[in-house]
Amino acid sequence: DTKGAMGSMHEGTKQVEEGVQLASEAGESLQQIVSSVDRVTDMVRQIATAAEEQSATSEEISSNITGIAEVAGENSEGVKQVSIATEDLAKVAEELKAMVSEFKITGGDADNSMEDGNDISDTSRNLRVV
Asked: Cα(33)–Cα(37) distance, rounded to whole angstroms?
């Protein structure tokens, strides 16, 4: 029986050693898993930070585009107003041209009379309606 007990103890010791070895390997595996989880957690944090920065940048770009669109709209309105004013000015110029064409200056060149020191009111009496 001593021999059997010794064999059983030896077998038990062997199984305990195998169990300790398996537990040690499991501990190392768990440590590797924890290390991998830590790396993944850091990566997720970096991705989240980058996503927040990208979101803020996108919002700023959107705001800038909105501002540009507003300025473009204001410029467009300004161009319309300038176009209308130009058309009005062209009409007034045509009307003025038509009015001036009704007058003729008699008694010499208007430029010469102005150089002689005559006041424009003096030349107006030389105008006649045709």
From this structure: 6
